[in-house]
Amino acid sequence: MSSRPVRYQSALEDSARWDGFVFRPGDIVISAPSKAGTTWTQMICALLVFQTPELPAPLTTLSPWLDMRVRPVGDVHARLEAQTHRRFVKTHTPLDGLPMDRRVTYLAVGRDPRDIVVSLRHHGQNLRRDVIRRLVGELEPDPAPETRPHGGPAEGEYMRRWVHNDESPLTNLDSLRGVVWQTERAWSQRQRPNVVLVHYGDLARDREGQMRRLADRLDIVVPDQVWPALITAAGFDQMRAHSADLVPDERLGIMADTRSFFRGGTSGEWRRVFTDEDRADYDARVAELAAPDLADWLHHGAADLTAPP
User: Fold this and answer.
1) pLDDT band at residue 283 using 50, 70 and 90 as cut-offs
2) Domain coverage including residue 22
3) Catalytic residue among 77, 85, 92, 299
4) Does residue 283 contact residue 293 with C-beta atoms inside 8 Å?
5) Number of domains within the chain
6) Is residue 8 in some structural domain?
7) What is residue 243's predicted lDDT score, i.e. its pLDDT?
8) Do the domain assignments include residue 24?
9) What is the pLDDT of residues 198-222, one digit of tens each?
10) Across residues 128-137, what is the average pLDDT?
11) Residue 120 lies in a domain
12) What is residue 136's predicted lDDT score, i.e. its pLDDT?
């Protein structure tokens, strides 16, 4: 990695907001593409840090999204400085855009890109873009919204545009190219002792095992009698029931419905959207963007991350 972090900047986020942030030993940074399992990983970290399902504050207060532009950066830094618990900070910035500190653990989250695009489509329909524009100080109107029903032809068109979008990841990470770009920045650093790869599919298949793995990597000891409540609280039904306190809405009305943010916590939904032709097209594009081992991990997780790269 270069000594100076790469800058990633979009209408909603700016990685330069990390400039001047003072780390503490034991800090945790959660870096993930949008809709890859960021909030799920934040919740797991909160449960491990506080060791109770009864969190002392909303998740976005405990774990701010530092590079999100809806609040003054000085206020976010001050909020984190005032925290006395072990800090865990959210970001959608790739690792090469973040200050790297040996005292910090970086949790890099990945997910099957095909499921990411389905979730992105749904999430986009739930956002109140007029509120977001006002919060970030942009007054220009959005293009006309898509009016065709979710699940109809428009969804397939959205997916195909996402697959072939070739905008620079420095300004747009919400594309297949952006997802592979961000994940590769973590994949190439996976042998570092303070970089931990987390895969959405592994969490879905074995939530308890993955939570125990993360506790071990974070040097957190959880009493045996406490584990069952934490594992239950990290389930999607429980998280949906407490969505108002968990979603990255910042209590600012960014989302039309906070409950719909948690849709199911499963993998493979892309199969109802991708035709055989779409899948062949996607496979060819991934082969252009990702090395085979990275592509395999993105799609399946569960790789032996202790082996030499």
Assistant:
1) very high
2) 15-300
3) 92
4) no
5) 1
6) no
7) 72
8) yes
9) 999 999 999 999 999 999 999 999 9
10) 53
11) yes
12) 59
